[in-house]
Every structure is written in C-alpha cells, then in structure tokens.
Amino acid sequence: MTNCRVSVILPLKDYTPFLEESLKSTVSCLKPEMELILVDDRMDPDCMPVLKPHLSHPKVTLKKANGTGIVNALHTGLSLAKGLYIARMDADDFCMGDRFTLKQEYLDRHSFKEGEDYLWMV
Question: Are 54 and 60 in contact (CB under 8 A)?
Fold first, then answer.
C-alpha cells in the first residue's frame, strides 16, 4: 500500500460477541490512505467465520503474532504497519464516523518530534 497515512492494529485472541460489529465499524472508517492489520494472538477458532468476510477487503490484512500475548501481538502489528500514524483497536471497540480521519488531520496540523518514525493515535 503506497502513501499509507494510518495503520490500525487490532489484536485478536478471545471471541467476543462484539467482534462482528467492531470489524464492520472499523472497516467502514478506513479511507484510501489507511490500513487495518488484524493480528492473530492464538485467537479463538470462533473468530474466523466473523473475520472471513473482511479478509477480502484490500485494506485488511491478517497476520499471526510473533509469540504470544498482547505485547507481542502489538509488536507484530507495528512491524507490519506502513502508516505514519498508528491507531489501536480492540475486538470489542466500535469506530464511528471519521474517527481516524479527524485524528489524522489533527496530527497533520501539529508536528511531532523530528526523527520519530510513527505516532500513536489514541
């Protein structure tokens, strides 16, 4: 993906009844200059049927974590991220409207320290 501005990292472990809505809402917020990285942290097999419809989306990637645990999952996602800005979501989080776009625009207007390779969005 060229000119990626925002990489959204979403680690997956336990199944949650909110996973489908979380994925739908997150994917709906992605703009052309954004990507969603799903990280498999030994995820529950019940997650896969919910993930499958989203894996064909050109901005969605699923990768297995290097190791186990949330820290390793986040490091895996970060190592794959192409964006200048990093956003973090959980499997039970919902994304509304232009969340990533508004934060990207704010951060574009407010420079960060020279030499930083990326900036976290919260």
Answer: yes
Residue 114 has pLDDT above 80, yes or no: no
Please give the Cα distance from 26 to 45 (Å, whole number).
21
Question: What single letter denotes the amino acid at residue 13?
Answer: K
pTM of the model: 0.88
- Cα(37)–Cα(96) distance, integer angstroms: 18
Q: Angle, nearest 10°, between helix axes 48-55 and 19-28? A: 20
Task: Return the residue matching tokens 């970060």.
Answer: 78
Domains located in the chain, CATH noted: 6-121 (3.90.550.10)
Tens digit of pLDDT for each residue in 84-103?
Answer: 899 999 999 999 989 999 98
Residues 6+ apart with CB under 8 A from 84: 4, 5, 6, 118, 119
